[in-house]
Amino acid sequence: MVSDGIDRLGFLIHDVQRLLRKRFETRASGLGLSSAQWRLMVRVAKEEGVTQARLAELLEIEPISVSRLVDRMEEGGWIERRADAADRRVRMIFPTAKASAAYAEVKSLAGEVYEESLIGVSPEDRRVLIRALDVIVKNLADGEASSLEKIKNAEGAAA
Asked: pTM (2 decimals)?
């Protein structure tokens, strides 16, 4: 069987993600947060007022783990909890000024890691890569059934 490399796609995506995370963690180690804390802080910075339940979904971890993580970050002065005006049982999470300043540094570090990872990739190939990954995310986010329907429709149209 002749392969165009598609059989390696999952492994390549996984390896890139793992290596990017490892390189980023090495660079960001001096800033005083674990990788789990960085991930939470970035989500909170991008979605101020996010609920703990939504953070658990976004981070793909159990709600109790998010609660403990939020506790530690609140104690460290990185985030603050506020009650939702509409439902006092709901706790919304907001970044502090300390987190906002660190987020700017994190974005800069991430940009450096991304640039380092893309050395030797032409600007056009970078655009193609991003477009292709966007399509993959969209295909997978739509759900398995609709993706299979798209394949069948595309095969039917090509016939």
From this structure: 0.69
